[in-house]
Design goal:
The complex is a heterodimer of chains A (about 280) and B (about 160).
Chain A: E1 9-20, E2 23-30, E3 43-48, E4 52-60, E5 68-73, H1 77-82, E6 90-97, E7 110-116, H2 120-132, E8 140-146, H3 155-163, E9 167-173, E10 176-177, E11 183-184, E12 201-206, H4 209-221, E13 229-232, E14 248-249, E15 252-253, H5 254-257, E16 260-262, H6 263-270
Parallel strand pairs in A: 7-8, 7-12, 8-9, 9-11, 12-13
Antiparallel strand pairs in A: 1-2, 1-6, 2-5, 3-4, 3-6, 4-5, 13-16, 14-15
Chain B: H1 4-10, H2 19-26, E1 29-34, E2 39-41, E3 49-55, E4 58-64, E5 68-75, E6 80-81, E7 95-98, E8 102-108, H3 109-118, H4 120-146
Helix pairs in contact in B: 1-2, 3-4
Classes of the chains: A alpha/beta (about 280), B alpha+beta (about 160).
Chain lengths: ~280, ~160
């Protein structure tokens, strides 16, 4: 049966994990038909019956028996309503939409992931993919910045990644009290500690746009060429199919030609305020 | 035994420094060891020395009301701790506390300022290294002030 990209399919919530005080990850299972398998970097439209739809990044792809996982921060009507749901409740899911993180292009390269805040959610499937195929890649580093220690996403998984001897994981927070023993400072400060070879590195960056702008500057300053920097753009996506125009970004629609975009292709408009 | 000059030249911060200038800086430098929780300096004190971290972590901290201590940033191996020695009135504007055992190279501020005044090449070499550091820290402070993660990335 062909699944219409416009039609939300009913999914049942099978688990809810409170990641931070305002952010939760929900595990979803199709009630009947499933959407096509999302690739790392893609998003879905989650439909809360009677409230509306919101584009939400896939934070865990449904492979090898794992459920579809999506991480939301409760800020809008839709996301606030969804994170209050309980296992057994149903929502609509349509998609997946958008471009993917370049995990295939990164084959044979050193890989640098830079995530800020909730930006770790869309990057997590790409990180998991790279770690699951570790022998295909060179050095791997995950640099993550959060607002405070209480805002750190996926703590257990970060610890697991850090325990692997062939992955560099650096976490920093923008502000902390003395009880915090980790690093304090902006995520871009971690770039110089990552110890990568710019000639053979591909970087994937996800977070608020201002954080991505500074990260790109830091990467370029370290010698990484623009064509090996990928960012995930955030715009107000409504339809997910490039029809409504809400997410127009220059000549592109973020929901179709993004959200993951190669930096050199958008560099000329990346910092233009009016776009 | 490693000479102070070779220690100066080994610091990433002084990469590319000409040997005669390294010798001049080494003439103002000495080694330090700070045990965990020892203070490199306190807010309000005269900034008589700045530090290059050879090993260990340092946090720059400030006290606010209610006995709360806020960590402004952490500095790590290869980083420079302290820039107030460059700018009058030469007083620290935060505390610097060793989070781990720290080995650092301390450079006497008055000594180095005197050499910079007397030898513009040395002054320029220092300016070329400290100006980008100050700009980077200003940008970092601006980013922290923006509180970029306070807003949701997606609705």
């Amino acid at each position: 049966m062909t699944v219409s990209p416009y039609l939300p399919l009913p999914y049942r919530i099978i688990a809810v994990r409170q990641d931070t005080p305002d952010t939760a990850t929900i595990d979803l299972q199709p009630v009947r038909a499933a959407i096509p398998e999302p690739a790392p970097g893609q998003f879905t439209m989650l439909y809360m019956l009677g409230v509306g739809e919101a584009p939400i990044s896939v934070s865990g792809v449904p492979i090898e028996g794992a459920p579809l996982a999506q991480t939301l921060r409760g800020v809008g009507n839709v996301s606030k309503a969804i994170i209050r749901l309980q296992p057994g409740d149903e929502i609509g899911v349509r998609g997946p939409y958008g471009t993917t993180w370049p995990v295939a292009e990164a084959d044979g390269h050193d890989v640098l992931f830079i995530a800020g805040g909730l930006g770790l959610a869309p990057l997590r499937p790409a990180i998991r993919h790279v770690l699951a195929h570790r022998d295909r890649y060179g050095r791997v580093a995950v640099l993550y910045g959060a607002r405070t220690p209480a805002d750190i996403l996926y703590r257990d998984e970060l610890v697991l990644w850090r325990r692997m001897l062939d992955v560099q994981v650096e976490v920093t927070v923008d502000r902390a009290q003395r009880a915090w023993h980790g690093a304090v400072g902006v995520v871009t400060e971690l770039v110089s500690r990552a110890g990568f070879e710019p000639d053979r590195t591909l970087a994937m960056v996800c977070g608020p746009e201002v954080m991505m702008r500074f990260s790109v500057q830091a990467l370029q300053g370290a010698g990484l060429p623009s064509e090996r920097i990928y960012v995930s753009m955030e715009r107000s996506m409504k339809c997910g199919t490039g029809l409504c125009g809400h997410c127009q970004f220059g000549a592109e629609f973020v929901c179709k030609q993004g959200a993951v975009m190669r930096y050199d292709r958008i560099a000329s408009i990346f910092t233009v305020r009016e776009i | 035994m490693e000479s102070l000059e070779s220690i100066v030249l080994a610091q990433p911060f002084f990469a590319g420094l000409e040997p005669d200038i390294a010798e001049m800086i080494a003439g103002c430098a000495r080694n330090h060891v700070f045990e965990p929780d020892a203070y490199l300096f306190h807010e309000g004190e005269a900034a008589r020395e700045f530090f290059l971290l050879r090993e260990g972590d340092v946090s720059l901290e400030i006290h606010i009301s209610g006995g709360t201590t806020i960590v402004l940033s952490t500095q790590h191996e290869g980083d420079v701790v302290g820039a107030s020695w460059l700018i009058p009135p030469y007083r620290w504007n935060s505390d610097a506390r060793a989070r781990t055992r720290v080995r650092a190279l301390g450079v006497d501020a008055e000594c180095l300022r005197g050499k910079c005044e007397a030898n513009p090449r040395t002054g320029y070499a220092m300016m070329k290294r400290f100006a980008p550091l100050l700009v980077r820290r200003l940008q970092a402070a601006q980013t922290q002030l923006l509180d970029v993660y306070g807003r949701a990335d997606r609705p």
